[in-house]
Automatic annotation (TrEMBL):
<feature type="binding site" description="axial binding residue">
    <location>
        <position position="64"/>
    </location>
    <ligand>
        <name>heme c 1</name>
    </ligand>
</feature>
<feature type="domain" description="Cytochrome c">
    <location>
        <begin position="47"/>
        <end position="126"/>
    </location>
</feature>
<keyword id="KW-1133">Transmembrane helix</keyword>
<dbReference type="Pfam" id="PF13442">
    <property type="entry name" value="Cytochrome_CBB3"/>
</dbReference>
<feature type="signal peptide">
    <location>
        <begin position="1"/>
        <end position="30"/>
    </location>
</feature>
<feature type="binding site" description="covalent">
    <location>
        <position position="158"/>
    </location>
    <ligand>
        <name>heme c 2</name>
    </ligand>
</feature>
<keyword id="KW-0408">Iron</keyword>
<protein>
    <recommendedName>
        <fullName>Cytochrome bc1 complex cytochrome c subunit</fullName>
        <ecNumber>7.1.1.8</ecNumber>
    </recommendedName>
</protein>
<dbReference type="InterPro" id="IPR009152">
    <property type="entry name" value="bc1_cytC-su"/>
</dbReference>
<dbReference type="InterPro" id="IPR009056">
    <property type="entry name" value="Cyt_c-like_dom"/>
</dbReference>
<feature type="binding site" description="covalent">
    <location>
        <position position="155"/>
    </location>
    <ligand>
        <name>heme c 2</name>
    </ligand>
</feature>
<dbReference type="Pfam" id="PF00034">
    <property type="entry name" value="Cytochrom_C"/>
</dbReference>
<dbReference type="InterPro" id="IPR036909">
    <property type="entry name" value="Cyt_c-like_dom_sf"/>
</dbReference>
<feature type="binding site" description="covalent">
    <location>
        <position position="63"/>
    </location>
    <ligand>
        <name>heme c 1</name>
    </ligand>
</feature>
<keyword id="KW-0349">Heme</keyword>
<keyword id="KW-1003">Cell membrane</keyword>
<keyword id="KW-0472">Membrane</keyword>
Length: 269
């Protein structure tokens, strides 16, 4: 008993007891709390993938193959990422009604929860661009003027100067960007759907994409008014100049002919 009491009174005894208590607390926390959270996240992701696989088997496998490897009717989906799924399915382009030069947008048949499940399954086949968050495509911190420059340089050749869309070759077309959600525009730039090239973060940075989206919102927003009056469809300077040349010059010629006719008639009188 005297030896035990002496050990208890040792100067390092309190330190040893404190270290043992901390080690036990840390071990219990590491063993239970993080493991439970990680396990719950893993279980949730696994369930999403399983549900997405079921949806894929019904609505997508006939064209893209049972394992997403692709067929003669549809490309491989390995490595396209969740962003491509969210865009294609979220805009109603997929599942496609019929093959063609261009797959147009249509009514969405899946809920957002089902789209997320499909995206989880496709992502499990191979890494690819993730679905962007609101901080990436929101208007906060965007430069509209810079976005206009970037859009005219990289996008206007197909989508027109204000995103009105335009015709391409062999029945293809660049769709109008009016009314398209900022998230889907960002995803389109990320993934390059159909005839569109992809603009990864080395080509157009995250800030560049945000600026372009802000520009499109500025020129196509519900409260946007053309500062020059009639916008003639916003088709750009070439078509607008041609309109002015044909109709404006035609009106001037008509007025000149009318004045000359009136003058000649007055002289005869």
């Amino acid at each position: 008993m005297k030896k035990l009491s002496a050990r208890r009174r040792h100067p390092l005894a309190a330190v040893v007891v404190l270290l043992l208590a901390l080690a036990a607390t840390g071990g219990l926390y590491a063993a239970f709390a993080p493991a439970s959270k990680a396990q719950a996240d893993e279980t949730s992701q696994s369930l999403a993938i399983d549900e997405g696989k079921k949806l894929y088997a019904v609505g997508c496998a006939s064209c893209h193959g049972t394992g997403g490897q692709g067929t003669s009717d549809g490309p491989s989906l390995v490595g396209v990422g969740a962003a491509a799924v969210d865009f294609q399915v979220g805009t109603g382009r997929m599942p496609a009604q019929q093959p063609g030069a261009q797959i147009p947008s249509k009514k969405v048949i899946y809920s957002q929860a089902e789209i997320d499940q499909l995206a989880a399954y496709i992502s499990s086949l191979g890494a690819g661009p993730a679905v962007p968050g609101k901080a990436q495509y929101g208007p906060e911190g965007a430069d509209i003027a810079k976005g206009g420059e970037l859009f005219r340089t990289n996008c206007a050749q197909c989508h027109n100067f204000t995103g009105k869309g335009g015709a391409l070759t062999h029945g293809k077309f660049a769709p109008s960007l009016e009314g398209v959600s900022p998230k889907h525009i960002y995803e389109a730039m990320q993934t390059g759907p159909q005839n569109m090239p992809s603009f990864n973060d080395t080509t157009l940075t995250e800030q560049n994409k945000k600026d372009i989206i802000a520009y499109l919102n500025a020129v196509n927003g519900e409260e946007t008014e053309s500062p020059g009056g009639l916008e003639l469809g916003g088709l750009g300077p070439v078509s607008e100049g041609l309109f002015a040349w044909i109709f404006g010059l035609g009106a001037l010629i008509a007025v000149a002919v009318w004045v000359a006719a009136r003058t000649a008639k007055a002289k005869k009188s």
